[in-house]
Write a structure and sequence with these properties.
With 299 residues, the chain is of the alpha/beta class. It is built from twelve helices and 13 strands.
Length: 299
């Protein structure tokens, strides 16, 4: 009986040591987010999770067979980042990523389990096996590619120039003589600032909402902003006929899976290709962003 007690204490201690080891490893290789928040803080917060709750990542590429056997795919999606994903008035998740997650489950022929996750927790949820894949406005960079694998791009995320139908511009060079609004210090502000001094009248505003309001009220003819901001602007002001003029900087979103899940990733890419070819992905873009997929994503 004493021996059994000692063994139980030993294995409890071992589980806690392993949990702390993998948490420390995640902290060491943590990364900054491209498109919505940072993952670093969330990795640190994993240290507060009880050791018994830590599930070691599957690194053997077995995810596809496991989810097909289970009959359910767990997809991490945003619940605080419209129009990619948010909770509606009936407390249901809705948005671009939610619709894509549903299409992904249909393509796999299994049930969907949505796993709401804020930007900080996307990769940790994948790494600790709380989700089978991440569909949550996830950008790709070299640091992330070290620890997870990415699908083909499935969602638009870019900075662009927007305005009414009367203004015809298709490049930065064609902005010469125009008045354009930007949020001060934003990525768009930095890009516009690269133009020769005096060629464009730039009006800087303190926030995205003020920049959008400036276009609606006629203070500026054009604005440079992110497509997420523009989506809300287009949706809230249909009479203004606001449209995208051109893309300044393109940073599309990808589905994330655990490193080495090659078979699963191949299946995901096949579904994404089918959604593009059928036009379904374009329909989802028009619904949530108010504009079709950019050319770089349409095929």
């Amino acid at each position: 009986m004493v021996w059994d007690l000692l063994k139980a204490l030993f294995y409890t201690k071992l589980r806690r040591v392993l949990a702390l080891f993998f948490t420390s490893l995640l902290i060491t290789i943590s990364i900054a987010s491209c498109s919505a928040g940072e993952d670093t803080a969330s990795v640190r917060s994993l240290a507060t999770i009880e050791a018994e709750e830590i599930v070691l990542p599957h690194a053997d590429g077995s995810t596809l067979s496991r989810i097909m056997e289970r009959g359910t795919v767990r997809v991490a999606v945003p619940d605080d980042f419209p129009p990619f994903g948010a909770v509606n008035t009936t407390m249901q998740l809705q948005g671009y990523d939610i619709d894509v997650a549903n299409e992904m489950a249909k393509g796999l022929g299994i049930e969907l389990q949505l796993v709401p996750v804020v930007g900080n927790y996307r990769i940790p949820f994948l790494q600790t096996d709380r989700a089978d894949m991440v569909i949550s406005s996830l950008g790709k960079n070299a640091d992330r590619e070290v620890i997870i694998d990415f699908s083909e791009p499935y969602a638009p995320f870019f900075s662009g120039v927007y305005g009414g139908p009367d203004i015809q511009v298709s490049s930065l060079e064609e902005l010469n003589g125009q008045t354009i609004g930007v949020s001060q210090g934003s990525l768009e502000d930095l890009e516009i600032s690269k133009l020769p001094t005096g060629t464009v009248e730039v009006k800087r505003f303190a926030s995205n909402s003020l920049t959008a309001s400036a276009l609606v009220s006629g203070q500026v003819e054009l604005i440079a902003t992110g497509n997420v901001v523009a989506a809300k602007l287009i949706r809230d002001n249909p009479d203004q006929q606001i449209e995208s003029k051109f893309i300044m900087k393109d940073s599309p979103c990808y589905v994330g899976v655990r490193k080495g899940d090659t078979e699963f990733l191949t299946e995901i890419n096949t579904i994404i290709a089918d959604l593009k070819q059928s036009g379904r992905l374009n329909e989802i873009s028009v619904q949530w962003f108010g504009e079709p997929l950019p050319t770089s994503l349409a095929s």
